[in-house]
Amino acid sequence: MNEPTGPRGERRATTLETGDGRGNPRETTVSYRVAGPAGAPPVVLLHGIGLDAADVSWRHLLPALADERRVYAPDLPGHGESEKPRLSYTTDLFARALRAFLADRGLDAPALVGVSMGGGVALGHALDHDVERLVLVNSYGLGADAPWRPAAAAMLRTPLAHRGWWAGIGSSRATVREHLRTMTGGAPPEDLVTDVHEAVASAAVGRTVASWQRDEFRPGGLRTDYSGWLDALVPETLFVHGERDPLLPASWSERAAERTGASLELFGDCGHWTPREAPDRFERVVRGFLAE
């Protein structure tokens, strides 16, 4: 599955040993984009959960980095053009997929850029493995709970309600646009509406979201919270956050940056999807940080 090289690079696929989330072997075919000079320093871009895929969050950043970097942007299992088997999708499974992808591509210590759930995966990896530089964007994994978690957990107890919610989001461009309006700092860009509409078309992606949420949304809070481990964070790190983010508050990144002495960039006019809401500024900030 090779796609000719274009502005967003070449699309390729590889088969990884990811396990099935229950301790059993399981190979999963993962699709990814790659761009930039083969000998350039590598950077891996990790998208978020459900509404996202490599071509969604990284549509603008991937070609912007490809002048100086060898850029890899995988569709995580259950997303985009990657295989979507019936698995137990957890943050741990996505972490295993990242480790397997890095080993498969021979990437020992690349830079990592992760948004939302992908930020939590990148942060967990950086706490245990060598990473050149780390960019965490509106990142998950920096707080113990969120105000919307109890309602989301309650909906998961009624599978038909969750399936209806997911089908409703993707039923038309108009419903995608209205859902994105609740996540972004204003009217969502139309090209983002188009990309998300394509990303949520598969019911299998909805199963991925429900599986991950069932594992993450616990009675007392969110399962993945690295805020108590940040003293062990070694690589130079940049936190980026939209100040209007209604899902993961900007205060998470502010506290994390203060605790670690890391760089912090707050985008006052953005919500949860900073890479797509302010792509030009976001690209300048990330390129500058990776070039230091």
Topology:
Elements: E1 10-17, E2 27-35, E3 42-46, H1 54-57, H2 61-65, E4 70-74, H3 91-105, E5 111-115, H4 117-128, E6 133-137, H5 149-156, H6 159-169, H7 173-181, H8 190-199, H9 203-216, E7 217-218, E8 221-222, E9 236-242, H10 250-260, E10 263-267, H11 274-277, H12 279-291
Parallel strand pairs: 3-4, 3-5, 5-6, 6-9, 9-10
Antiparallel strand pairs: 1-2, 2-4, 7-8
What's the average pLDDT?
94
Order of helices and strands: EEEHHEHEHEHHHHHEEEHEHH
How would you classify the helix and strand content by structural class? alpha/beta
Q: What is the β-strand count?
A: 10
Q: Looking across the biggest beta sheet, what order are the strands in?
A: 1-2-4-3-5-6-9-10
Largest beta-sheet details = 8 strands, mixed
Name the shape in a single word. globular
Low-pLDDT runs: none
Name the beta content range: 15-25%
Q: Which percent bin holds the helix content?
A: 25-40%
Radius of gyration over C-alpha positions, nearest whole angstrom: 18 Å
The total of helices stands at 12
Distance between the termini: 35 Å
